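Good morning N.,

You mentioned wanting to compare the apo and holo forms, so I went ahead and generated the holo version with beta-D-fucopyranose. This is what I fed in:
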Amino acid sequence: MVLGNPLRTKSAAVHPFPAGFVWGASTSSYQIEGAVDEDGRGKSIWDLFSHTVGRVKNGDTGDVACDHYHRWREDIEFISRCGFGAYRFSTSWPRILPTGNGTIEQRGLDFYDRLVDGLISHGITPWLCLYHWDLPQALQDQGGWLNRDIIQKFAEYARIVARRLGDRVKHWAVLNEPNVHALFGHGIGSHAPGLTGLPNMLAAIHHQNLAQGVALQALRAERSALILGTVLSLQPARPSSSRDEDYRAAERFDAMWNGTCLDPLLRGSYPSSVANDFTPLIMEGDLVTTRQQIDYLGVNYYTPMYITYDPQSLFGAWFGARPPNMPSTAMDWPIDAAGLTEGLIRLRDHYGNPEVYVTENGACFNDLPGADGTVSDVDRITYLRAHLAAAQDALAVGVKLRGYFVWSLLDNFEWQEGYSRRFGVIYVDFKTLKRVPKASYQWLAILIKG
Ligand code: FCB
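and this is what came out, ligand included:
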């Protein structure tokens, strides 16, 4: 493959990372697997949502996605060739428990069993995430995250997966971005299950926090040697102007977005500015359950959020104008790598300096193959370089950052944007499903292999 300029600038890219630093790539089940009707898989809320007219751009669905369910061997080869030592994927709850609880679908577990063995045989450490938003539809029909009964069902699902894979999978993440799932899926309805309203959002947050706590206990009880963590979306909320009301709005947004995940887990409380919102949902002992010992925290970082006072919005604060001339990705997300350092330092200073992994970081740029067949995603390399430098800034000031996972291994189904948004370091032609490693993949390979 012809390699473009960005690769040659490698030495200026990033200083060496500490020995043992983990390099990984991230994906999630619904976004890549496809094979939605195979091997007894039950429906997930994303099947229903994506098949509802008008919900996802261009009517795209995850029916085929990257067809990873059949092409996982090839994908492992790509992971291996890049030099990634770790791979973060999620298990699909409805593949393993088609109706959410009760009957176990062994063929679903078999798939992850093969995947895990394949990874290990290539020297790649599997990092398993139990929930990346694809709730079994059967549980949604019983209220999903609005119904407290889900807590025990989730713990049972966690136990089942740990029993089957916990002998080989050591690294576990319980949830992926419960805040995003709650806000977009249950507050404004742009994600599955498409619910709206503040009470729904709050219930989804609280019940995920509880389920996470109970699942952490269940996993620990199942196998004491597991390395347990969870994954949060940690993006700084900045006022969109110097007006006082925007400052207050940014604080409220920060509490709702970042604080409602961090604090119940690490402090056993909700941030004081939003605690009243949660009072009706909290039962005795809940905040003891949400607070759990974890071995690491997974941080997903993409962009800072600029927040404005908006009394008409879900909780009075919403996305507003960003500073003029700020560069942005093809998602129109502003680019500011310093936001990553800021979030990591916040964990150091206010949350007891836990061991941290960046479990997702990356950028959407929709580069296509050129005439020579290569994909020259120079903007993605620039983004990754800046964010890795920001990670080093955090390391230099004592943040216990232990690894970095790029989002994403493959271009994939980007939720309500369907296939119109590309985050992969590997290009996927969604007609032929052919994979083409992009320049960013080559750049990472050189970086990782030193
Ligand atoms: C994160 C999600 C991931 C992907 C990236 C772009 O919020 O965890 O699935 O959509 O954003």
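DSSP finds 17 helices and 13 strands in the chain.

Happy to go through it together on a call whenever suits you.

Best,
F.
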